[in-house]
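Section 5: illustrative case.
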């Protein structure tokens, strides 16, 4: 649960960026492997999650809810930590 809280705190920090500044982005990694990049667009108050798979293919998802964004990131990280 603390990992989910940590993700939410990182997303909240992104939301505090002023609209005139660069688009805030964060990388989420496990063991040095980048799993996804998250961008926050202050003008529309939306998050974009760009997920990278093992073949470096990218999938993009857009969310307007911080909780749903955090859950998506959490699931991506958990899949890497606990592969099936």
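Designed sequence:
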């Amino acid at each position: 649960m603390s990992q989910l809280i940590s993700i939410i705190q990182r997303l909240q920090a992104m939301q505090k960026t002023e609209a005139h500044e660069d688009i805030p982005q964060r990388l989420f990694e496990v063991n040095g492997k980048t799993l996804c990049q998250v961008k926050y667009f202050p003008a529309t108050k939306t998050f974009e999650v760009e997920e990278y798979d093992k073949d470096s293919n990218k999938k993009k998802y857009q969310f307007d809810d911080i909780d749903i964004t955090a859950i998506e990131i959490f699931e991506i990280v958990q899949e890497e930590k606990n592969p099936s």
